[in-house]
Amino acid sequence: MFRRTSVVHLVDELGRAQRRERAREDVQLLLVGVAWALWGVRVELVLVVALAAMQRWVSGMLGDVVGGVAVAVIIAAAMLVRPVRCALLGLLRAMRLRRAWARATIDSGVASGPFRAPGVWSVTRVPAGELLDVHVRRGQSVAELDNRSEHVAACLRAREVRVLRDRRDAARASVLVVRRDPFEGADPIAWPMGEASAVSLWEPIPVGVDEQGEGVVLELVERNILLGGEPGAGKSAALSVLLAAGALDPNARLWLLDGKLVELAAWAPVAQRVAGPNGDQAVELLREVRGVMEERYRELLARGLRKIRREDGLPLHLVVCDELAFYLTLPDKSQRQEFAELLRDLVARGRAAGVIVCAATQKPGTDVVPSALRDLFGFRLAMRCTTPQASDTILGQGWASNGADASEIPGAQRGVGYLLAEGERPIRMRGYYLADDDVAAIADRAASQRTDAWLAERAEA
Ligand SMILES: Nc1ncnc2c1ncn2[C@@H]1O[C@H](COP(=O)(O)OP(=O)(O)OP(=O)(O)O)[C@@H](O)[C@H]1O
Ligand SMILES: [Mg+2]
């Protein structure tokens, strides 16, 4: 009898202990939840508390009515003064996004619960949406966040979420919450150096803007660039910007290969040599450039240098080839092979000698641009392509399935492409545009500058 009573008592005691433990856990969860909710609205709370304190302080001195009026005046003044209004609304918007981000990372499984969401250190509004500076918590990784980016985007009701890990800090990432396509229906953007009297190819050349509205520049020295895209994607327009920079550099020499004859025609007066849609001319031109390159290497050897330097004043050579596919598919096999071999040689060996090759092709298939040749180009720009495979032919294997697929660029977006710069993640950008009149004006200016320089040199000699 005694034994039975003590067992029942023990079971009751155990049940009560379990219930107490569960209740304690529930209270703990509730407290964490409340603290988390309050933390999410900390800025709003501080503002409300500050206003309430102000109202009480003024009311204490001058009465309730004046206190109320004072608060109303402060709110009205903040709304009427534009910089204050913008700062305040920006802050409130950023806080709303932080709350949505925290919920999204919990719901998508990146964070295990409240106070475990990757921290948002700053929020910047950019043309494509919002750019967040994110720090992951201990035990999390940027790769995990990247893997769940589709889930996070769905929770945020955004078009896309792009995660870019900081190279120097594994815990830090730039996260672009894409809300809109900044290139949709946008007007062409003029090249900012169109009015410059001189440009140096040794300096970074502005070529376009990215989705965050930042200027994109290319440092061309010791680099080569390959552009690919379907007809009308904007390849020749992009080449024109590079040519304009080359033409305005009085110390640069331009070599043009124009498979269509008319695309680069405006730059002919400033070029060393031009080859049209003619295999012999193209091969001759490349042979000459190779001669220049070999001469340059002899010169460098004589000077005890391994590569060209800006202070030596040696001219850079810009070799621009539009319609590369035309030359790489010439009907004469030996001519075609010689062209491909000369071009490969220039791309492979020309960098240290100051030879920069810029080539554009309409057909970026591997049968036209072998990957051995493509891989030698440090910069690659994939403009709108017909298939993801064509996009990958330019950018390199795998990028299309990794978020950089040029076949997804809408047909109406001319001049938009993915730029891959030396192994970094491709960025989506829109190239600056030079209308025919601008091209003609720049080419004219560059030609007369070059003539003046030549005459001055003659006069000195
Ligand atoms: N960056 C740009 N901004 C705005 N419009 C552009 C841009 N680039 C190109 N375009 C528009 O697209 C048209 C076609 O461009 P472009 O001739 O450069 O294409 P392409 O790729 O060279 O075509 P194709 O392969 O047929 O030679 C231009 O006439 C211009 O109207
Ligand atoms: Mg073209």
Automatic annotation (TrEMBL):
Q: Does the keyword Signal apply?
A: no
Report the InterPro entries cross-referenced here: FtsK/SpoIIIE/SftA, FtsK_dom, P-loop_NTPase
The answer to whether UniProt assigns keyword Ligase to this entry is no
Binding-site residues for ATP, renumbered to this chain: G229, E230, P231, G232, A233, G234, K235, S236
TM spans (from-to): 29-53, 65-92
Any one GO molecular-function label of the UniProt entry? DNA binding
Instruction: Tell me the superkingdom of the source.
Output: Bacteria
Supply the alphabetized keyword list. Answer: ATP-binding, Membrane, Nucleotide-binding, Transmembrane, Transmembrane helix
FtsK domain: from which residue to which, for each copy?
213-392
Official protein name in the record: FtsK/SpoIIIE domain-containing protein
From which organism does this entry originate?
Solirubrobacter ginsenosidimutans
